[in-house]
Amino acid sequence: LDPRGALPVLCYHGIVEEPSSEYEVSIEDFRAQMLELKRLGRNPITVSQLVRGLKGEARLPSSPVAITFDDGLRNLYTRAAPILREFGWKATAFMNPAYVGTKRLTWVEWRKLAAEGWDIQSHGLSHRRLTREAGEDQESYLAAVTEEMVGSKRKIGEGLGKKVDMLAYPYG
User: Fold this and answer.
1) Rounded distance, CA 147 to CA 154, Å?
2) Is residue 96 a contact partner of residue 126, using CB atoms and an 8 Å limit?
3) What is the distance, to the nearest Å, from the Cα of residue 48 to the centroid of all Cα atoms in its chain?
4) Residue 95 CA to chain centroid, in angstroms?
5) Is 45 helix (H, G, I), strand (E, B) or coil?
6) Tens digit of pLDDT for each residue in 116-143?
7) Taking a C-beta distance cutoff of 8 angstroms, is the pair 104, 95 a contact?
8) Maximum separation of any 2 CA atoms in the chain, in Å
9) Other Cβ atoms closer than 10 A to 64
10) Considering only CA atoms, which of 70, 59, 57, 55 is closest in space to residue 9?
11) How far is CA 24 from the centre of its chain?
């Protein structure tokens, strides 16, 4: 934590060659940002480590920073993970299990990251907005949101053999 008690949490989506949206960062910029964190003496932690530290169940390192990724896009595995691996760092990935194996990571890749110490958590089952859709009745809405939250935890738990206890809210 910094002197004000704040801890930076960096959220990434896509690590790409040529960014085309505000959700993408170039490979070069991502590497430069990680180098800057190292130069500043920052110590990356997972969100699970952060929560345990805030609960007083674990000691946080000096100058911690949480590095997170939403969506589980393929470039997380092919571009971001290798760069973090060079520094010996892990991160937290918030995934949507409904899309495993499409333009996203496969279960084999997710299991490899988890085995390396990555924290894999939920970003909803299919990245549905968790607000009620226009014209959607209350019963359908509650069933859909329950499946997004509970179903995602179940599928990730089955796919990785681990308990999932966090959710990064889709669309903020």
Assistant:
1) 10
2) yes
3) 11
4) 7
5) strand
6) 999 999 999 999 888 988 999 999 999 9
7) yes
8) 53
9) 18
10) 70
11) 15
CA distances from 162 to 62, 121, 141, 144, 156 (A): 28, 10, 28, 23, 8
* 6 band by pLDDT with thresholds 50, 70 and 90: confident
Question: What single DSSP character describes residue 60?
Answer: P
Q: How many residues does the chain have?
A: 172
| Bridge partners, 9 (sequence order) | 66
Mean pLDDT rounded to a whole number for the chain: 94
Give the CA distances from residue 150 to residues 11, 72, 109, in Å, rounded to whole numbers and listed in that order: 23, 18, 23
**From CA 95, how far away is CA 124, in angstroms rounded?**
7
CB atoms under 10 Å from CB of 50, counted, come to 20
pLDDT in tens, 54-65: 999 999 999 999
How far is residue 26's CA from residue 109's CA, in Å, rounded to a whole number? 22
CA distance 4 to 128: 35
Look up residue 132 and give its two tokens.
């009620």
